Amino acid sequence: MENPFYICKPKNQILIPFFKPKIPSKISRHAQNLIAASSEAETPLPLPPQTRRPGDRQLLRLIHAGKLQEAVSALDSGTPIATRTYLSLLQACIDYDSVEAGRLLHSSFPSVKDPNPFVETKLVSMYAKCGDLDNARKVFEQMRQKNLFTWSAMIGGCGRENRWEEVVDLFHRMVLEGVNPDAFLLPKILQACANIEDIVTGRLLHSLTIRLGFLGESHVGNSILNLYAKCGDLIMANKIFDKLNVKDRVTWNSIISAHCHCGQNDDAFKLFEQMRNEGIEPSLITWNILISSYNQCGKPTIALDLMKKMESCGIIPDVFTWTCIISGLSQNNKINQSLDLFREMCTSEVEPNNMTVACAISSCATLKYLKNGRELHGYGIKNGGVSNLLVINSLVDLYSKCWKLEDAERIFNVIDKKDIFTWNSMIGGYMQAGYCGKAHELFLRMETLGFRRNVVTWNVMISGYIQNKEEEQAIEHFQKMEVVGIRKNAASWNALISGFLHNGDANKAFRAFRQMQLGSEKPNSITILSIVPSCANLVSAWKVKEIHAYVLRSGLRPDLPILNSFIDTYSKSGDLTSALTLFNILHSRDHISWNSMIAGCVLHGCSQAAQELLNRMKLEGLKLNQSTYTSMIRAYGLDELVNDGKEVFMDMKDQNFSLGMEFYAAMVELFGRSKRLMEAYNMIKEMPIAPDFAVWNELLTAARYCGNVKLASLATENLSSLEPKNPIIQALSSSLQAICGNSIDVSNMKKPWKESKEYDLYSCCWMEDRHQVYTIFTNDKTVESESTKLVEFSRIAKEIKTNNSDTRLDIEEELEEDDEVHCERKAIMFSLVRRPSSKVIRIIKNVRMCAKCHGTAKLVSRLYGRDILIKDTKCLHYFRNGKCSCKDYW
Fold first, then answer.
1. CATH 3.40.462, domain 529-755, yes or no
2. Spans of the PPR repeats (predicted)?
3. Contact 507, 477 (CB under 8 A)
């Protein structure tokens, strides 16, 4: 039989020379040399006894004795080999994973007595199983006849090497040539479709399985279930699961994994419990599926509880379990807990692997725990982990983030085979330390050494430049990416957006966000989490709605952190209704959800709604934390429920809560609103820690509200000591001294303040009109001059002029000229003239409102039927029907 397919010559093959006279090929080389040498001699020498090639039986004995190399070396070119012997030799090459011996056998293929497709298939299988897919493919492609076993051998080889696209391509060719897969081959092809999420080919295979009658085979059914699970088609996965007559552990693992893959961890856990109820005990793999899923969705605490539960069920966690939870805790900002778990692992029966050590070092790098990182470095040296590139890269990252660049450079320079992460970590370290020049040198050095810079490298450069306020360089690198063939990913845009936000330029960030929507890489969850909080102000309320609309329109599945961010931002931008609507439709709520909503109600002065939410939160069994208690105190303060607030304070002390400054400030506000000023002051004196700016500022508010000049002066003095260079506080202090009757020249005290740069910016506000933000200053006359309705402007100004009968100490007003119309009043009039049909006016002011402006806003809200929202440095004022949400306490 002619065999035209590829023949592979073995390396170092010895070619037998041709001699004259011709010598039989069966005579050994030693005998040939003797004969050749004797041909020139006068007297022929006697021939030694001929040594023949071992027979097939002898070859088989050598194989069974484990002497594969000897058996293959004994083959002579051209000597016939029995098919059975040749197949046994090929199988031995597979068993011993010896591709070199296989190549020698391949060169002897023409000597096979009865070559057939089965022998050729075995040759393909040998190459494939020994990892030489190139030669396997060459033999396969040159075969004239391919049967099911041939296709199976080639597909199996590609599958073992994770070449899933080739598996799918081979399947399509196979079907076109009229060969159908059997029940053993189908799972391999289905696995390939699942791994590359090729749902189209997967559905074709599903139909073919039904037509061929293999759906009843449990391993085939499990593979189809796994396909739909990995492709995210949970409906079909559930249908397949319900139709399977026999559900083994693999079946349950697949359906549980499907629900985990789609983020439905609660349903996955129900299936897990159902599996146990039906008498099938979960294996280690089952537990790890659940644990990994809870980690990925940001719930490492639940994953840790599951690990403890699996131990109680007699399942010992393996290194994957430990590493998974340690990594999950670290990624979810529970880094101290992750390090504690690593220490616990070191005392268990499971030894950390390089991945575990690398995760622990990364945790230390995030927290900048240099001491702990050095200990892990020593642990790695002791256990041989420092030879692992993953651990070494983590050490470079650790020392870079801990500002130990010399140590990072030392490790970096001794690494022989650096990977892309090594370079990126070192560049990131330079950028973090502000050495942009060194980072750029390393960036260029990569190209010089022929090391291809990936998208992460470029992102590190962009992020580093913009964090160091070198925006032009950042934008230049961002624009250059496409030129050099690097496609921007979502992280590239996110680096730019977060950098703009870090530098305080929310407008540039929002423009970049809009451009991102027009490109190929759409905003993801990280983008939304970055951009949404920047809109948490009154003049950006329309931006929040635009971002929310994009999320709904794009089909982006918002997770709980995103929804919580929207709730918080809606509240702070003055849209409490949208925040409540979003909160009420949440399927699940965590502490952040409840705290954000309760704080939002308090911010808007809705004390009853806040207290109702608190009661609902308690009924759901959630444990209140310090943020919740602080909101409770502020809610009680709005209704002057001092005794209720004091009970909360005592409860927190009994529970040994670590009370922060925000809580003490809330308590001072509680007493101040009820005009129990001395109790507020006594609480400050009894604080175990020194009061900060917020606490003294609350006392100043309470003193102003009660008209107590002495305590107001005391509060201002302490504020001045905390911020001695703050000219506003200095001016406040001088005004208070004048009110107290001290013999000082107030005009001279105000003179340096008025001549300072801060005076030009003092008492300004921002208002939004038709998606445009206007900045209005108290001493700015352009608002009136730009108005086309000057008469209307003057009429409104006269109409809203009110006689203020407030008894509070209006210190801020003393800083502005008496004949000036304050900026928020100008903004209100500007809005009334420009947009007479508008129902809502939104203003942000950079200092506390004065009593006249507060009274003006109340009057306008009643006379003109407008909702007016003004956010000053003290609180959010929501004016409606002549009343303010602050209840005249600010």
1. no
2. 116-146, 147-181, 248-282, 283-317, 318-352, 419-453, 454-488, 489-523, 590-624, 625-659
3. no
